[in-house]
């Protein structure tokens, strides 16, 4: 198997874009090189990179041009070079919506999808699902189910994300994969669990009772993925918002329990959900306390999240933010200008006349610094 490493000679020589003067006609001619035997991986990789660059720059190919490049690209299945093969899958995926008769590579992609080479399998799944229409999906359904519960997280995630995309066009078929996706929700791998929950929820989105059962069950289950837990918080918040009866309290209790989670993103997601749901200042106390801690964090991302959410809360419950005045005042001199600006606007919106007078000096200094930076640019 070829190494991933490539020579980088000349990569940092100057700032010239080597693809600046790419021409579609020249590229069409270069793609014929893929028919050569034996395949030169280095040269083919360079040509594929140029094709992908041109497509992502918005270059429009006619159906015939796209078909010609597509069929030339399929000749690269004979290569065993890992980098070349993965670029080939990506190119097939990009051209699938423009070229004709793309299903001709279905058998080759299915072979790679079910093969032993893990470096091919995930990319082959993504490419296969992009070219397969609803009439042919049943032929690969068994392989997709196996891939969803595969031990390799890259393969499992590729199958789950592909299933999520397919659910927009063939929801009934993807719904039959829900059992495998439900099994994958409990995966130890954070991204697999996250993607699996999205697939399961998508399959149940038109059935409220089924969604309620899913959220209720998973709320009692210790999910290991913080990303999946964030998604579950959003589903619980949506159910609580739609249901104004006492039964919605179970969702609120679950969200509040997540305020004590060890993951910062879960804690923030829970605080954000509570602020969106709760109607009284008293109910907001726990969430505001969390945001107050965020404002004093050494991490700029947490300070920004805390300041931004408090600024949002000010519009509905200015009195709830009053307890954070000291923390917000400390953020006026924050090195991150976005954080400082949010702190200033929040303090102006919530402060009394006496406190605003006290803040005029640090705010004046802050405004002058912004002016200096603006004129200095």
TrEMBL record:
One of its GO terms (cellular component) is endoplasmic reticulum. Pfam families: Adaptin_N. Gene3D superfamilies: Leucine-rich Repeat Variant. Residues 26-375 form the Clathrin/coatomer adaptor adaptin-like N-terminal domain. Signal peptide: none annotated. One of its GO terms (biological process) is protein secretion. The coatomer is a cytosolic protein complex that binds to dilysine motifs and reversibly associates with Golgi non-clathrin-coated vesicles, which further mediate biosynthetic protein transport from the ER, via the Golgi up to the trans Golgi network. Coatomer complex is required for budding from Golgi membranes, and is essential for the retrograde Golgi-to-ER transport of dilysine-tagged proteins. Oligomeric complex that consists of at least the alpha, beta, beta', gamma, delta, epsilon and zeta subunits. This is Gamma-coat protein.
């Amino acid at each position: 198997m070829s190494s991933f490493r490539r020579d980088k000679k000349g990569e940092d020589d100057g700032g010239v874009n080597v693809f600046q003067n790419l021409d579609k006609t020249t590229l069409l001619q270069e793609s014929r090189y893929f028919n050569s035997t034996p395949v030169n991986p280095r040269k083919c990789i360079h040509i594929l990179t140029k094709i992908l660059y041109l497509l992502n720059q918005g270059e429009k190919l006619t159906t015939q041009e796209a078909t010609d490049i597509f069929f030339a690209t399929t000749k690269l299945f004979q290569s065993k070079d890992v980098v070349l093969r993965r670029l080939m899958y990506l190119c097939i995926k990009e051209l699938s919506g423009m070229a004709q008769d793309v299903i001709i590579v279905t058998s080759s992609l299915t072979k790679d999808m079910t093969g032993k080479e893990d470096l091919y399998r995930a990319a082959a799944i993504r490419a296969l699902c992009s070219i397969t229409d609803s009439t042919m999906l049943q032929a690969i359904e068994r392989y997709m189910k196996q891939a969803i519960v595969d031990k390799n997280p890259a393969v499992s995630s590729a199958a789950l994300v592909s299933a999520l995309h397919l659910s927009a066009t063939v929801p009934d078929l993807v719904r039959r994969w829900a059992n495998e996706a439900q099994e994958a929700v409990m995966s130890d791998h954070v991204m697999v669990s996250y993607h699996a929950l999205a697939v399961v929820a998508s399959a149940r989105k038109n059935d409220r009772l089924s969604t309620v059962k899913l959220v209720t069950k998973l709320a009692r289950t210790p999910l290991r993925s913080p990303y999946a837990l964030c998604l579950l918080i959003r589903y619980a918040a949506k159910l609580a918002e739609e249901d104004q009866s006492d039964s919605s309290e179970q969702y609120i209790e679950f969200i509040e329990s997540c305020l004590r989670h060890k993951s910062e993103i879960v804690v923030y997601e829970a605080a954000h959900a509570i602020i969106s749901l709760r109607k009284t200042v008293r109910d907001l106390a726990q969430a505001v306390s969390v945001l107050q801690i965020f404002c004093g964090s050494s991490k700029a991302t947490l300070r920004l999240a805390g300041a931004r959410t408090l600024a949002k809360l000010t519009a509905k419950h200015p009195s709830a933010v009053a307890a954070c005045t000291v923390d917000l005042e400390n953020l006026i001199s924050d090195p991150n200008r976005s954080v400082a600006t949010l702190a200033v606007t929040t303090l102006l919106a919530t402060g009394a006349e006496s406190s605003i007078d006290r803040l005029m000096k640090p705010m004046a200094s802050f405004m002058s610094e912004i002016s200096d930076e603006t004129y200095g640019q």
